[in-house]
TrEMBL record:
Protein name: Phosphonate metabolism protein PhnI
Species, as recorded: Frigidibacter mobilis
Pfam families, per the entry: PhnI
InterPro entries according to UniProt: PhnI
Gene Ontology BP, a term: organic phosphonate metabolic process
Length: 358
């Protein structure tokens, strides 16, 4: 692949950017706050794929990009690289999450009970066209339950381990500074477990859905059942340089475990978690994680395949780079094509049998 430097046309390039930004109009703090308030799910998706939990900045990135998700993620990741790393938060266990929604499709009566939380799973998908006629849509108020569910819910996998239904691998303690960090290290294969989970957490939602869906339709090794799906808030506890541990606030998180009966006779689990609330992403990611062991080379559920091809910034960047000048490469192809055509024109046509002299 070859490129050629472009010269000239600076004014056209500048005006092209101005045309794009003119479509977006003025961006002010009010627009950013309106986006954050009106599009919480989209804000969550951008934060998850950018690996940065900052709703105001995510809303600003969406405002600047006009809603182009890949541009918004790129803006947020670029800003993230300029920030110092002040500390590493303490690990958060599942039973320490402030849970808003927790369901299981594998077990009806799970410890702690099923908590529907906010969901459109059972709603009719009807477009509120009255809004366009000047009649605002106002959602019905929520009626609080007589007995609120406990905010902290136990881990279903921990209960399954106690029942002998799933394997209980030994837990490896890792010092905070020794945790592999995908934002500072290249992704190599076989991937470290931390790199796999970090890649899934910041992967493109659409890409993960496409590959995860292929596994669900039979192009994988195992059919998933949602063992546990949880939307929650995780408290970030960090240590002050003087040694005091304190809460730095909460972040919204999603996590999913999917399960299938393994060859060992136990249930096998696939896992995925991400920043923000994004159920489709974590279910798809957990499905890919479940199917990865033993996957054939080049299949959609092979770890190297799906981790490389669901990286949103690299994938979108490679796609749009084809818009850049490829004059040298294409000219080379044209030269080869013209040369072959000229050679073919000089070659005498083969003599047909009826034209052979007697």
């Amino acid at each position: 692949m070859a490129y050629v430097a472009t010269r000239g046309g600076e004014r056209a390039i500048e005006q092209s950017e101005r045309l794009y930004r003119a479509e977006l109009g003025q961006i002010d703090a009010g627009r950013v706050q309106e986006l954050r308030k009106a599009l919480p799910m989209l804000i969550d998706r951008v934060m998850g794929e950018a690996s940065l939990y900052e709703p105001d900045l995510a809303a600003l990135a969406l405002a600047q990009s006009g809603g182009d998700l890949y541009e918004a993620v790129l803006l947020l990741r670029a800003w993230r690289t300029t920030q110092p790393r002040l500390g590493i938060a303490a690990p958060v266990m599942q039973d320490q999450l402030f849970t808003h929604r927790r369901i299981s499709a594998a077990f009806k009566d799970i410890p702690g009970g099923q908590i529907l939380g906010p969901s459109l799973d059972y709603a009719h998908r009807l477009l509120a066209t009255d809004v366009l006629q000047g009649r605002p849509y106002s959602p019905a108020p929520v009626e609080p339950a007589p007995t609120p569910a406990p905010a902290l819910q136990p881990s279903l996998a921990a209960w399954q381990k106690a029942q002998g239904l799933v394997a209980d691998p030994a837990r490896a303690e890792v010092a905070p500074d020794d945790i592999p960090d995908l934002t500072r290290e290249p992704l190599l294969f076989p991937a470290k477990r931390a790199h796999t989970l970090q890649s899934l957490a910041r992967a493109d939602t659409g890409g993960m859905l496409a590959l995860g869906y292929s596994a669900m339709r039979g192009y994988g090794n195992a059919h998933p059942t949602v063992n546990e799906l949880r939307l929650a808030e995780a408290e970030l506890r960090v240590r002050h340089p003087r040694g005091t541990e304190f809460s730095a606030g909460r972040v919204k998180v999603s996590q999913a475990e999917v399960t299938s009966k393994g060859r060992s006779g136990l249930l096998e689990l696939g896992f995925c978690a991400t920043l923000g609330w994004n159920e489709v992403k974590v279910i798809s990611g957990a499905t890919l994680d479940l199917n990865a062991p033993g996957a054939s080379k080049g299949s959609p559920v092979e770890e190297e395949f799906f981790l490389y091809h669901t990286e949103p910034v690299e994938a979108s960047g490679f796609c749009i780079h084809f818009k850049l000048p490829h004059y040298v490469t294409f000219q080379s192809s044209l030269d080869a094509l013209r040369g072959a055509k000229a050679t073919a024109d000089k070659t005498p046509a083969p003599i047909q049998p009826e034209q052979v002299p007697a």
